[in-house]
Structure formats: C-alpha cells, structure tokens
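Bug report (template v2)

What were you trying to do?
Predict the complex of my protein with adenosine-5'-diphosphate.

What happened?
Run completed; filing so the output is reviewed.

Input:
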Amino acid sequence: MIRVLDSRVAEKIAAGEVIEHPASVVKELVENSLDAGATRIEISVTGGGKHSIRVTDNGCGIAPDEVELAFSRFATSKLSSLEDLEAIISLGFRGEALPSIAAVSRVTLTTRRKEDFAGTRIRVEGGAIFPPEAVGAPEGTEVLVEDLFYNTPGRMKFLRGEPQELARISALLTSLALAHPGCSFTLASEGKTVLRTTGDGFLLHAIGALYGSEAAAAMLPLQGRQPSLGLAVEGYISAPHFSRASRRWITVVVNGRVIQSPLLAGALERAYGGMLARRRHPVAVLIVKAPPKLLDVNVHPAKSEIRFQRPEIFNELVFRAARRALLGRPGAGGPPHGWMEEQQREWRRQQLQLLDPGRGKESREAAPAPAASFTAAAFSSAPEASPGDAAGGCRLIGQFLHSYLLAQEGEELLVIDQHAAHERVLYHALRAGECGLRPAQLTLPLNLELPPAWSVRLESLLPLLEEAGFILEPFGDNSYILRAIPSLMREGGAAEIYAFLEDLLQEEPEPGEAMEERLWQKIACHGAIKARQPLSRDEAEQLLRDWANTPGGACCPHGRPAVIRIHRAELDKKFLRKGGGRQ
Ligand code: ADP
Ligand code: MG
C-alpha cells in the first residue's frame, strides 16, 4: 500500500535532487521495477534518453486507487516508520523518484495488477496530474518519460550529446543487470538493441552477455563467508591476464544495490598484489550480503554510496576471498562447490565447443615485464668517438635500462624518455599529415567483441577511425571485424588492439574536445617505441635526430616531460668541485 511518509521520517532521509540526466531517470524507474518483483525489464530510449525513455516491466503493478498517490512527494509503499528505515532492503524508499521525474518531464504511467480486470493510465506534465483513466493493459507497469527537462532549460544545458547520454545509460544498465542476473534486461536505442541479458539467473551468463565471452572465460569464481556476522561475498573476478585500464569494470553489489566502493575495490586489487601490471584493473562482480545493521545506505541521495559500520571486516572478507580465488581455492571457508563453480564448469564446456582454438591465446595479455636491471647499457663505441652529432649539437651517449636515451648537448647531459620522445615525433608527423594514416591490412583479421557500452561510442567514432586508417566492419551485435589498422601502429595481438580501443572509448571526451586530436595522440602513443625496449645504436640515433627536429619535443603529447637536462654546473656542485677544474 502506498502511503505518504510521516514528516519525521521524511526529514531523516537524505534529501537531494536525484534527477540529473537521462540515466538517473532510468535508474529510478528500473529500481522501481525490480522492487515490484519484475523478472523482465525492457528499456527503450530515443535521443540518448533526452527525447523519450520507456521502461516496461512485468512486476506487481499498482492498484488503481493508488496510482495518483505514487506521484506525491514522500509517497511510498516501502517504508513507514523509523525502524523500517534502519532495516531497509528495497532499492527505493523515499517516495521521491516519480514526483521528481514528473516535475521535469511529461510522464505517462500505465499499470495493471494481476488481480485487476482493467489497467490504469495516468499522465503528469511538469508536475500537473491529469485524472487517471481505465485502459486495457498487460500485467505490470510501463512508464514513459518524454522531453526530459523541457521546462527547466537550465538543467537541459548540462546534458551531454546523445551518444554520451546513451553510453551513461548503457553503463548503468550493465551494472544493474550484473546485480540482478535473475531478471532479463533489454536496452534498445532508436529501436535497435544495445544490450540484452537472458535473466536465467546465471551471473556468468550475464557477464558473457555484457562483457563478451572472452571476459566470461577469464573469470574465476569467488566466495567468502563470515558466518558469525552473517556476512558473505560471492561473484567472479578476472584471472590476472585479463585486465582493464580502469576500475569501472569492478561492480560491487551490496544487498542487491550497486554501489561505488573504493574500499572493496581496493581490497580486491590488493589481493592481486604484483599480478597486475601498473595502472591495470581487474574485471569483477562482487555480490556482498550483509545484515542491514552493518550498513547505512542512506548517505547518498542517489543511494550509490554506502557506509560500512565495520569497514575492516568487509575489507578482510573481500581480500581473503579474492586471494583464494586467485590461488585456485575459491571454496575454502564456504561449501565445497558453490553455484558459481557449477556455472563456471558449464560455461567452460560450452566455450570449448564454441571457441576457435587460436583465439584464446591471442587475448592473453603479456605478463608484466620483469624488473629492469640497473645497468647503464652504453653502446659499444665510446661516446667520445661517435661519428659526429646526431642533430643540432645533440650527441648520443647510450641507452639506460632500455628506457632512456642519454645524450650530450654542449655542457648539458640529456636524459630522454624514449617512449615520450618517440610519441612526440609521431604525433607531430600525424598532425602535419606526414605519415601513418594509411590503412595497413592485418595478416589475420581480428574479431572484436565489445561491451555494449563501448560499441555505442564506437559507432559514433567509426567515420573518424576510418579516416585514420582503421577498417572495421560491424559483425552482428556488438562485434566487429578489424581488417586494417593505421600503418603507423604496430600489429599486436587482440589484447593490444583491445587496450587501444578501450583507452579511446572509455573516457567521455570533454564537450568541445576535438576527437581527432585525441585519436592522433592515442595512435602516436600506441605506435611509439615502448620503455624497456632495447634499441640498436642506429635506431637510437635516428630517434634522437627525429626528436631534436620536432618542435615542442620537450614534452610528450599528454604534457609529460620527455627530457630532463642536467647542466655540468649542477654535477660539479654535487661532486663538490669548484670551477669545473680537471681534478
Ligand atoms: P519509492 O520507490 O521510493 O517508494 P517512487 O516515487 O519511486 O518511490 O515510487 C512511488 C511508489 O510507486 C512506490 O513505492 C511503488 O509503490 C509505486 N511504484 C512505482 N513504480 C512501480 C512499478 N514499476 N511497479 C509497481 N509499483 C511501482
Ligand atoms: Mg523508487
């Protein structure tokens, strides 16, 4: 039954406008559907959600005489007393979402409970409620939200472009679908399916549908319990070879609620120790179950943060469970065979039949390079005897740790970051249109299976990528065949191309930022000589020459320094020499 909350309870609840962009509308509506017990939720948007958002569920529906009440502030069927607030388990509880959405858009809600003969439809525009009417309707609820922020142009201004807003929605639904594998989610944009999960209850199937089968195949089951406190964590984490460039791929779900948890993400990453390369992050879904008294969900208006009453216990629980998962002993402390292992075995059986044998190998990323030895590798010929200056009075001395070029210019010692320097050279050449953007055919075309959130962005970038020399052909849902890459890029394996695309697609560009610039930077970065790469003397000299002839060579395109100069006077001072004498 929907009731208006007592003002005493209402005041206790973290207030705040929750509707910031189309994804916040989707979040509130989908959470309502989940609270209503839906097992199938279809979301369909146009204009990145700015024009319309339609959420249809097969949940319990709303009684005809309560439909109007659902749009009053602090009207909720989920909470009535302060005690309830402390033990909250449903996703929504403030009775604020529907009125907040209806205040800034045109909403049409159609609903029918199983036991009702007729359905009810109500329309609310900019907060003004029209009388409900009886209509024929399927069981469940459909909410249509049109023209978001039509009456608040100030807020409309803050919305991003349609692809970015759609990407936000897609990322949100990805995490909600991971949190609720028993519910089938479908997202369509302009009538085209963007993502879909089956809702068969298998988390691993959801991971496969959302992140691709390679990600699913790399997952290790995780399980941990702390029975005395009623705490448990389960889920999947990626084996160390399968990593990503950001933490966005770590989904934390606490009692059915997707939250941002730097604490638990940190605990998870510590468990990998040195197994992950620097700045790489695992893919993971952590499902935490905890008694409500150990949590305070009411900290954040969008409920996306949570306060743990005893953070160290949660921290320890996740760390240990992840450790065991990585060491191949997921079940320790729990039942010998959990549901995740069952799923895992089933999945592997299917994969063995599906995967072509070469493909698994390619996706493996190289393990982090062993620590470089601390020796300066001077080239065989003595620097004094080298054949003249490489460029502009700059002379090569040698390569240090296979990462830095040492050179001499007048009275200065130059330490040059070989990657940053080469990146600058390539970037400059790309901008000047001198090289590198011709397509170079790959010996073996690559099949790239992308997470839905990426493919949305990729689609909008396709023309630009083509101009740059990529040849990418759409190949079914979220899959592409990559036939060529810019000639300047090295032909690496799938993992390398994947990392390149991830880098390019995952951050949203700032409004007004030229995507072209960004693409050149990434291509230059990708094509450049890496750190810890041994160079022959000729190669090193060529690089030094190119670098010295490139304007703005002191920094890489991202603004990191490419060179450190140490003047002789500085060395003299350090060695307590006076006047640079010969002794
Ligand atoms: P809250 O979710 O915080 O209770 P909302 O404003 O989101 O507040 O929703 C108000 C009430 O409307 C809910 O408590 C619920 O009873 C009803 N409701 C909203 N959406 C649905 C839905 N999809 N199915 C069934 N009931 C719904
Ligand atoms: Mg709600």
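What did the reviewer find?
The two ends are 93 Å apart (CA to CA). Residues 28, 31-32, 92, 97 surround magnesium ion (ligand 2) (CB under 6 Å).
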